[in-house]
Design a protein that fits this description.
Largest sheet: 7 strands, mixed
Structural class: alpha/beta
Strand order of the largest sheet: 2-8-7-6-5-3-4
Shape: globular
Radius of gyration: 21 Å
Number of helices: 13
Strand content: 5-15%
Bound molecules: pyridoxal-5'-phosphate
Number of strands: 12
Distance between the termini: 56 Å
Oligomer: single chain
Length: about 400
């Protein structure tokens, strides 16, 4: 009666992930935190880099005057210029302060972008598996999610995309490196995607944005350089975050970057500033803006994440699990040995190994492992993975 019908529906609908989370909590209470191997959350166990602590101390000792006051809704000019310099260096494009808006993480950035561009009923195309909150964010702003399945390597099928884009399509949302598959989209794919979007814009006489969620773009392995969609499509909007690369998810800091040659650039930026303000974010946290402006070229240890990936990937493959080797982010997305992956995740939980069913990411039949945890948690999980592999005779 008091809560809106829409929100009531959302909060009461049986979320599988929520249920698993509650079951995990119960296991931890029963057996103790250290005896449960929780690989369910993308909450990095790494602490922020030493440079972050150094700059934080420096700011505390020598705070700029007025550091805690309101500011321009787009964020501090020095911070936006620092982000633009970094992007210009990385991409060779002419990024400047005018292309950047600081936000409360990638989640804040996505909500600002979607609110700015969506008219009621317009469609945003997603590729499963996808970050679980996308559909909620799109619905927040009157949009409709259109979910497309990917191929066996979790790559979007461009022929299916071609058939799906309609005059109602306002944006295609990509996430590379991908949560949960770890897949990185290469230059060739991005080139073909850009060509397709241009073709469809011309066919329908509409504007289609490519929204690129780059929350994991610095967490990339095997010496790969991040392939940016900016080189292939002008109507690209980047949403980014320092939750993962600087291990600051609780601090809520990220940004939106618009391709310097994007059409209707000024109108878009005005819209983003308005929505950052009126969604109630007002601006990204002041202290964090001062810090990340100084840390654009710093990350947590990527080598450490790569070691964790190799450790778990190699062992799971030896046990007979079928897994695509991730090139980035900090997740594995193996095929579930049981068709009903929720049942499989429950089997693992019996061995006190917590993972997340693929249906939570729009891709049933798989499960997600987050390996951004202590090595002892990864080591401790192996017995459970082995026992379950034996039970389902994965090695034949
Ligand atoms: C793909 C992806 N996008 C966005 C987010 C949200 O990031 P932030 O903490 O910056 O809001 C996450 C968080 O896990 C994510 O995995």
């Amino acid at each position: 009666m008091y809560v809106s019908e829409k929100i009531k529906k959302n909060t009461t609908k049986g979320s599988v992930i929520r249920k698993m989370f509650d079951e995990g909590l119960a296991l931890k209470q029963r057996y103790g935190e250290n005896n449960v191997f929780d690989l369910s959350l993308g909450n990095p166990v790494m602490e922020p880099p030493a440079e972050f602590i150094r700059e934080l101390k420096e700011l505390a000792e020598h705070p700029p005057a007025g550091m805690h006051r309101y500011m321009e809704n787009a964020g501090y000019r020095e911070t936006r210029a620092a982000v633009a310099d970094y992007l210009a260096e990385e991409t060779g494009l002419n990024f400047a302060m005018k292309d950047i808006i600081m936000t409360c993480g990638a989640a804040g950035a996505l909500n600002v972008v979607l609110k700015t561009i969506l008219n009621q009923g317009e469609e945003v195309i997603l590729f499963a598996p996808y970050f679980v909150e996308y559909a909620n964010y799109i619905a927040n702003h009157g949009g409709v999610s259109v979910v497309l399945q990917t191929d066996e390597q979790f790559m979007p099928r461009l022929d299916v995309l071609e058939d799906t884009i309609s005059p109602k399509t306002k944006a295609v949302l990509i996430n590379s490196p991908n949560n949960p598959s770890g897949v990185v989209y290469n230059q060739d794919f991005l080139h073909r995607l850009g060509e397709l979007l241009r073709k469809k814009e011309a066919q329908y006489g509409t504007g289609i944005f490519l929204i690129s969620d780059e929350a994991y773009c610095k967490i990339i392995y095997d010496g790969l350089k991040y392939p940016s969609p900016l080189h292939h499509y002008q109507q690209t909007i980047i949403v980014n975050s320092h939750s993962k690369d600087l291990a600051l998810p609780g601090e809520r800091i990220g940004y939106i970057a618009v391709h310097p040659e994007c059409s209707e650039h000024q109108e878009l930026m005005n819209g983003f500033v308005f929505c950052n303000r009126t969604l109630g974010f007002i601006n990204a946290p002041a202290l964090l803006q001062h810090l990340v402006g100084r840390l654009q070229r710093v990350t947590v240890s990527i080598a450490e994440y790569q070691q964790k990936r190799d450790f778990l990937y190699d062992r799971l493959v030896k046990m007979g699990y079928s897994v695509t080797k991730p090139q980035g982010a900090f997740y594995l997305f193996p095929k579930s040995p049981l068709e009903d992956e929720v049942a499989f995740v429950r089997e693992l939980a019996q061995w006190k190994v917590l993972t997340v069913p693929g249906s939570g990411f729009g891709t049933p039949g798989y499960f997600r492992i987050a390996y951004c945890v202590e090595d002892r948690t990864l080591e401790g999980s192996l017995e459970g993975f082995r026992k379950v592999a034996e039970k389902f005779k994965l090695t034949g």
